[in-house]
């Protein structure tokens, strides 16, 4: 589905574009309490319902490519994959009851989020929504989980989420209001998972140490015939909080489990036993009130992503990457952001651009899919440099967030491959950005 060539005022606003800080951003607190009328009731249920909130958010953007690639894709870019085209990335609503982490008491909450737009193509779950839509704009249940706090074991207690979960690994996430850039780093697209059905636990051992663990059906899969193999996967890791006088936070998450489809590997046994190992560690340092630095290192190894080798062994692959972020708050409304990345795809098996609206999810499920020709040969080292200056004023009037993020981005293959602009260039320059408004 393409937007009309004649742009409306909204489309023009959405094409203006991009910026934010390189760490999760606190949004304004404007929100709707749909059950506030129950607050006067005397029952526990009335009190519980009174704190349920509803928020919504719309994002649209464009990344222009002067090379006008044929076919018309920005190689290696998921959220702005269609070059020179304005698109509605997200229109989402979230109904939730938050857990108060300052209180170590029994608590129960929930999160329900529905999302419509072009971003949904990459965040489906096999067997739930991946075959319901064929157009560019699709609909997903982005989150649907029960949240529980249990005052067990330590004074900080244990948090649990169970249901449809957004994957916790990495720096950049699905919510555009909580990340620095409109586009994503290669690491955030190819070396961290996106969505799960399962349960995640966060144990607050001490004020400094949190331990994270969980189990799920796999990356973007569900149960039975909707799982691309027959085995679960799981997380384990830790957070180190309030280091260096409260300025430093370190997050490490590892994940292991089979992620390849039996259809792709040709055998159920191989699909169940070819493990994928994901490892991500990132650190955020608040230098002062204006300057924030973030560094992320990621290593992924998959035992069977290339199927079975000539001698009958798994043909695995590796990807290593380092991403650095810098955020400088110019004043209360403007923030400058930098992102630099080196991403090594050792066998050219990880980085791909998926041609068509359903190709990405077909690849996850093991069904036939189509990609734009990219790098060939033994491997490619990608470089990404992205810059923006985000405009994020406090508008009031029940506007929770408003931001314009004009972005420029330089991608380059740092060896002899030519993956960009239809396989013609070893580099790509794009510019544009996004606009976000939410209540």
Concise summary:
The protein has 439 residues and is mostly beta strands. It contains six helices and 18 strands.
Protein architecture, described:
The chain is mainly beta. The chain has a single domain (9-438), classed as Porin, CATH 2.40.160.10. It is built from 6 helices and 18 strands. The chain has helices at 9-14, 44-50, 186-190, 262-265, 268-273, 359-365, and strands at 53-64, 87-97, 107-117, 138-150, 158-166, 195-204, 209-216, 233-243, 248-258, 275-286, 291-302, 317-329, 334-345, 353-354, 371-372, 380-391, 401-413, 427-438. The strands form 2 sheets. Strands 1-2-3-4-5-6-7-8-9-10-11-12-13-16-17-18 form a 16-stranded antiparallel barrel. Strand 12 and strand 13 form a beta hairpin. The longest helix is centred in the N-terminal third of the chain and has 7 residues, at 44-50. The radius of gyration is 22 Å and the shape is globular. The chain starts with 8 loop residues before the first helix and ends with a strand. It comes from Acetobacter okinawensis.
Helix and strand arrangement:
Layout: H1 9-14, H2 44-50, E1 53-64, E2 87-97, E3 107-117, E4 138-150, E5 158-166, H3 186-190, E6 195-204, E7 209-216, E8 233-243, E9 248-258, H4 262-265, H5 268-273, E10 275-286, E11 291-302, E12 317-329, E13 334-345, E14 353-354, H6 359-365, E15 371-372, E16 380-391, E17 401-413, E18 427-438
Antiparallel strand pairs: 1-2, 1-18, 2-3, 3-4, 4-5, 5-6, 6-7, 7-8, 8-9, 9-10, 10-11, 11-12, 12-13, 13-16, 14-15, 16-17, 17-18
């Amino acid at each position: 589905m393409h937007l009309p060539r004649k742009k409306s005022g909204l489309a023009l606003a959405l094409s203006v574009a991009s910026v934010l800080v390189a760490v999760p951003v606190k949004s304004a607190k404007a929100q709707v309490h749909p059950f506030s009328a129950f607050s006067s009731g005397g029952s526990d249920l009335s009190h519980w319902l009174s704190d349920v909130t509803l928020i919504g958010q719309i994002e649209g953007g464009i990344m222009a490519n002067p090379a006008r690639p044929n076919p018309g894709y920005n190689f290696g870019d998921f959220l702005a994959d269609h070059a020179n085209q304005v698109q509605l990335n997200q229109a989402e609503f979230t109904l939730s009851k938050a857990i108060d982490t300052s209180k170590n008491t029994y608590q129960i909450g929930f999160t329900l989020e529905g999302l419509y737009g072009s971003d949904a193509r990459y965040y489906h779950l096999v067997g739930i929504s991946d075959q319901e839509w064929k157009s560019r704009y699709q609909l997903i249940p982005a989150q649907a989980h029960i949240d529980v706090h249990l005052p067990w074991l330590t004074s900080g207690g244990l948090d649990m989420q169970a249901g449809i979960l957004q994957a916790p690994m990495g720096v950049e996430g699905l919510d555009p209001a909580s990340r620095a850039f409109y586009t994503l780093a290669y690491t955030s697209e190819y070396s961290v998972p996106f969505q799960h059905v399962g349960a995640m636990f966060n144990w607050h051992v001490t004020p400094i140490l949190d331990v994270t663990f969980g189990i799920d059906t796999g990356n973007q899969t569900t149960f039975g015939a909707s799982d691309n193999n027959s085995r679960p996967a799981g997380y384990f890791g830790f957070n180190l909080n309030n280091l260096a006088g409260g300025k430093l936070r370190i997050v490490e998450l590892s994940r292991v489990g089979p992620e390849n489809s039996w259809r792709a590997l040709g055998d159920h046994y191989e699909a169940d036993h070819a493990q994928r190992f994901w490892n991500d560690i990132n650190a955020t340092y608040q230098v002062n009130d204006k300057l924030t630095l973030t560094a992320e290192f990621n290593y992924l190894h998959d035992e069977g992503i290339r199927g079975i080798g000539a001698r009958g062994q798994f043909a695995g692959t590796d990807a290593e990457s380092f991403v650095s972020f810098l955020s400088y708050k110019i004043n209360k409304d403007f923030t400058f952001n930098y992102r630099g990345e080196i991403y090594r795809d050792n066998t050219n098996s990880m980085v791909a651009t998926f041609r068509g609206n359903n190709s990405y999810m077909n690849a996850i499920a093991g069904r036939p899919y189509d990609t734009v020709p990219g790098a060939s040969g033994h491997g490619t080292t990608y470089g990404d440099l992205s810059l923006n200056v985000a405009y994020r004023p406090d508008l009031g009037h029940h506007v929770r967030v408003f931001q314009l993020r004009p972005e420029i981005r330089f991608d380059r293959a740092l060896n002899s491959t030519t993956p960009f602009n239809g396989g013609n260039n070893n580099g790509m320059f794009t510019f544009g950005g996004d606009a976000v408004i939410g209540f």
